[in-house]
UniProtKB/TrEMBL annotation:
Topological category with respect to the lipid bilayer: Multi-pass membrane protein
Biological processes per GO annotation: amino acid transmembrane transport
Primary location recorded for the protein, binned into one broad class: membrane
Similarity comment text for this entry: Belongs to the amino acid-polyamine-organocation (APC) superfamily.
UniProt subcellular location: Apical cell membrane
Molecular function GO labels: L-amino acid transmembrane transporter activity
Protein name, UniProt field: b(0,+)-type amino acid transporter 1
GO cellular component, one term: apical plasma membrane
Natural source organism: Daphnia pulex
Keyword entries, A-Z: Cell membrane, Disulfide bond, Membrane, Phosphoprotein, Transmembrane, Transmembrane helix, Transport
One Pfam family cited in the UniProt record for this chain: AA_permease_2
Amino acid sequence: MERDVSTPNDALHLERRVGLVSGVALIVGTMIGSGIFVSPSTLLVKTKSPGLFLVIWAACGLLSTLGALSYAELGTMITESGAEYAYYRHAFGSLPAFIFSWVCTLVLKPSQLAIICLAFAKYTVEAFVTECEPPIFIIQILCVAIIGLITFINCFSVKLATKVQNIFTAAKLVAIAIIIAGGLYMIGIGNTQYLSQGFEGSTTSFGDIATAFYSGLWAYDGWNNLNYVTEELKNPFVNLPRSIMIGIPLTTACYVLVNVAYLAVLSPTEMMQSEAVAVTFGTRALGTLAWLMPLAVCISCFGSANGTLFVGGRLCYVASREGHLVDVLSYVHIRRLTPSPALLFNSAVALMMIIPGDIASLIDFFSFTAWIFYGAAMLALIVMRFTKKDAPRPYKVPIIIPVIVLIISVYLVIGPIVDNPKIEYLYATLFILAGFLLYVPFVYYKKVLPGMSYVTTFLQLLLEVAPSTSMAED
């Protein structure tokens, strides 16, 4: 859908085109990606028992729900897009907001997009190359093509991007329903020997439990994504909390039932040895329909990647609009009303991240960094309960909820460092600290690199974009 440019002096801005159904689809569609099809094996390796395995899957869903309820308060109190970026700016000031935008636009969102697209490419190639390990460069080429296609969809039209999200979310829910139905059938005929092992042999390691949460929470990540597009949400005071209340419990129920289904068919040993639990499940349980599982993974990853780029571009757009990134990233296409420069930038960084091709390292890097910022958002909510007592809060959570999520966030950050330190954690810390060095000259003193005005003008003409305004107060 294009904008009518015949109206003079009409300020450019993103329009409210995301309704309740699209809001739920964005949450569910970005949460259900590759994680539920890949993560179970990693999580079971860490927990060492079916009982603790299922408890942590459910606990991850509960933690995501508590976090999202806190975000519902933040999102209805501060109706700007950008999620954590906007909340830090209002609670703590410019510096923490800049640090978040720096890390998120250059690490978190691009790495998330790269992980999902690499998983898509890996499963697609493996469906055709069965005799040997597929060449990494083939996977990377397909990954580049998928990122390009998703970028085109999001740059072309917000309406098209949300339609794609709705369709692929519905498709992946059908795939999950097939897995659940297959598992329930196996339980019905008496295949409960693996589930009956319960908590036998469960780990007691502080670090193993924390890293098990990392694997589970990676599958749940996306619970905060609707907060990134609040300015484009129709009636955000109503639709933001409703979308959260529908989307996250639905995803949690799906995840727990899918893992019960896996254990009704596969032994814990088989699950731990499988790199693609859903594909192994399909081979064992679905017979001639086993091909549905690789297809389901690809559909799920594509929908999740589409939603991830949709929200990642909005964060980049908002941070630029507030002067924390180069100006051109806050510009909007003059007819299509999409933040195309921000979307292109996000995709370009993701393309660089696919070069190593190591999904496991990217997940470790992502999870460690993400939970630092999720915890900081909980702290922002608590702080604003005292500093902004009179601010209107259409939706308000009991204060104990953000306190619990904050404590768990601290555990998830410190636990792996103490028990099993990795180089990815050091890289993440150094990258955060680098943001402090960049803040002083480029934000505080507003220094501009020579020639940036010419670059901005060139990109503005090339991409047909113009400066925009905020919809937060509309």
